[in-house]
Amino acid sequence: MKKHNFSAGPCILPQSVLKKASEAVLNFNGLDLSLVEISHRSKDFVDVMENARELALEHLGLQDKGYKALFLQGGASLEFLMVAYNLLEKKAAYLNTGTWSDKAIKEAKLVGDIVEVASSKEQNFNYIPKNYTIPSGVDYFHCTSNNTIFGTQLQSFPETDALLVCDMSSDIFSRQLDFSKFDLIYAGAQKNMGAAGTTLVVVKEEILGKVSRTIPSMLDYKVHISKDSMYNTPAVFPVYVSMLTLEWLKDQGGISEIEKINNAKAKLLYTEIDRNPLFKGFVANAEDRSKMNATFNLTNTNDKDRFEALVKAAGINGLNGHRSVGGYRASMYNALPLESVKVLVDVMQELENKG
Ligand SMILES: *Cc1c(COP(=O)(O)O)cnc(C)c1O
């Protein structure tokens, strides 16, 4: 039986997607050829790329609004640099809410001037800073919508005249937002969208081409747009898996329906973390808690071996916290069924009742 997969990334994907993807590796579209051995210029693959790009815009409500979707390589980590290369002329503002924001700042500093508007680093990123000011005249404001490692999530985004850029790697397609407020969104596939190896970039085309520097071709969004995300050989398998997952999401009723399930999963787990005296949450303020990644620990570390034995016996995978936080992290991405969260909550109650 399939394990209850709470892994933070790469992570759970819908079982139906995995089945279709595995079939395509052996025989794609009835061609008697594998998806991974045909030309990326063949009509069969070009259709995959076009479909994936279109579905991404459709789910975000950004079709016909001047946005382009790209599937690039280099992970979200390369976007840290690409964003700055393409948008940073004088100065950019960053909100520092975790390891990924911190890395984004580090890369952007190679390109230009960065103002860190606020940071929760001094408290090991266990809250989301609020009431900061974005200086006027910055080229863009960058934030991370969900902090995968620490288990915090932005519930609102600032009103600003600056371009709004967001790393949504770990909560894209998980909740409804007014995505048209954003000028550039990027997300590594391997958290909520597909197999590792491709990164979705959704960018408003009119913001590009404004910086004075020469941008190397592979780092230039305009180059990738002009070649329909096929400037070089795309990551064919991860793009295909992303397309299948986006189709699956559509079959589920889209973001609005999956959000209801995501809310139910988060409510179930956080209610238990708050109720059960054997556990405590990591995040300082309940309103900052992530619905994708719940971080928590045992109140008494003497329970560690007993808890972990129960977790293992229940067929739960990937519950270990990131080394910078410790404890546990339950990642509840779109494809994780509510049933898996029920199993985890049962284990937490079993630990308490056998106390
Ligand atoms: C995982 C993650 C990244 C890094 O993604 P890569 O594709 O490994 O480069 C960046 N930002 C966030 C929020 C993440 O969760």
Q: How would you sum up this structure, described in words?
A:
The chain is α/β, with parallel strands linked by helices and 355 residues long. The protein folds into two domains: 15-251, Aspartate Aminotransferase, domain 2; 255-353, Aspartate Aminotransferase, domain 1 (Alpha-Beta Complex), CATH 3.90.1150. It is 35% helix and 17% strand. The protein has nine helices and 14 strands. It has a seven-stranded mixed sheet with strand order 2-10-9-8-5-3-4, with helices on both faces. Strands 11-12-14 form a three-stranded antiparallel sheet, covered by helices on one side. A two-stranded parallel sheet has the order 1-13. Strand 3 (91-96), helix 4 and strand 4 form a beta-alpha-beta unit. The longest helix has 22 residues, at 254-275. It is globular, with a radius of gyration of 21 Å. The relative contact order is 0.17. The mean pLDDT is 97. The structure holds pyridoxal-5'-phosphate (PLP).
Distance between the termini: 29 Å
Helix share bin? 25-40%
**What is the alpha-carbon Rg in Å?**
21 Å
The first-level CATH class of the largest domain is given as Alpha Beta
Question: In terms of topology, how is this protein built?
Answer:
Layout: E1 4-5, H1 15-26, H2 43-60, E2 67-72, H3 75-87, E3 91-96, H4 99-108, E4 113-119, E5 140-144, E6 146-147, E7 152-153, E8 163-167, E9 184-188, E10 199-204, H5 221-226, H6 236-251, H7 254-275, E11 279-281, E12 293-298, H8 304-313, E13 316-317, E14 328-331, H9 338-353
Parallel strand pairs: 1-13, 3-4, 3-5, 5-8, 8-9
Antiparallel strand pairs: 2-10, 6-7, 9-10, 11-12, 12-14
This protein binds pyridoxal-5'-phosphate.
Pyridoxal-5'-phosphate (PLP) is lined by residues 9, 75-77, 100, 144, 148, 167, 169-170, 188, 191.
